[in-house]
Amino acid sequence: xxxxxxxxxxxxxxxxxxxxxxxxxxxxxxxxxxxxxxxxxxxxxxxxxxxxxxxxxxxxxxxxxxxxxxxxxxxxxxxxxxxxxxxxxxxxxxxxxxxxxxxxxxxxxxxxxxxxxxxxxxxxxxxxxxxxxxxxxxxxxxxxxxxxxxxxxxxxxxxxxxxxxxxxxxxxxxxxxxxxxxxxxxxxxxxxxxxxxxxxxxxxxxxxxxxxxxxxxxxxxxxxxxxxxxxxxxxxxxxxxxxxxxxxxxxxxxx
Length: 255
Prior knowledge:
Elements: H1 33-47, E1 54-58, H2 64-69, E2 75-80, H3 83-92, E3 98-102, E4 114-119, H4 129-139, E5 140-151, H5 153-156, H6 175-183, E6 189-196, H7 198-208, H8 211-217, H9 221-231, E7 237-240, E8 249-254
């Protein structure tokens, strides 16, 4: 019997696997590993900065990021509106300092309840992003930080297009547009870019030299990516300052 390439593999007993829909990324799906690692590296970067705090992971999806945050934070709440994702996360990631709640990002939480809010790859999905950001700001305790990420319009969409073909995205942003949006709710905003590094940087250089034409002509495309994609790691991405037009994603650190 063929394995569903878009269904999570090897889940613990009693944990229902999730299927890829395009709305959220998932671990444990080899074909999705590039996107999973691209998101995971940002969670890991944030985790090193929230030690001992109370953290809200808004739109947490499958829950893997909330679990990573809980490795350092004092308490983490993972919030998602999707019932299947919520049930999966609750069963998959049990921990004394981690709770999963169902709710909407627009209305969940009490003012001043969290030292850090994590809101990754979701602002592009919402109808009123300015109102959502104002709500996040209200949920932060004094001195709190919100970490907000979104894909770069210039690298996710075809050249000249207003957005990509992702049906779940309402709007995608250039760096200056994203900075301005975050600044509408927060007094201090620093935007970093996520870029390819390691083997992905080498692969990027190979594509520029025509590697895609070579593997197609030799009939190696499927075999190559069946090995290459599952081998991608978080070390193959890097967050940094600098020119952002070529970034894959933006991460705003908002205070």
